[in-house]
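User: Hello! I'm new to structural biology and keep hearing that structure can be predicted from sequence alone. Could you demonstrate with Unchararacterized conserved membrane protein? Please show me the input and the output so I can see what each looks like.

Assistant: Of course. The first part below is the input, the amino acid sequence of Unchararacterized conserved membrane protein. The second part is the output, the predicted structure written as tokens.
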Amino acid sequence: MSNVTVVYTKSELERAIERQDKTIAVKSASLADDVKTLKSASSGAFALAVGSAGVFATNFWNPLGWGSGIIGTLSTGTLVTAIIAIGLSSTLLFAIYNDYSIKGRTSIQLAGGNSIDADLVMERD
């Protein structure tokens, strides 16, 4: 497979998504787990979690804002944790959710005949 982008960190993942790379191989188990959690969510849970993470992040100084963030977090806790851990903008989170399909731990063929083991492979739909 040619044109594979290998990423180890969330900043590398962010750049790959912004470039709309076709195939992204994630070589970090924790980052791969967060992406899997994000992709496995229902659309309603995903929207609620993104909103809750945003409310909580923007209103951390305001005790009244904590309530909204906490309610959403209790409803979608693991998903919110993954969203915060990935730390990408909502636009990039939606790109992962809508524009990429994922494969779990696999070996991927690189141009030139070499292969690598990846914790997760994302392919642009």
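User: So the tokens describe the shape?

Assistant: Right, they're a compact way of writing down the 3D structure. Reading them back into a model, for example: Helices lie at 10-18, 29-40, 43-58, 63-75, 77-86, 90-99.
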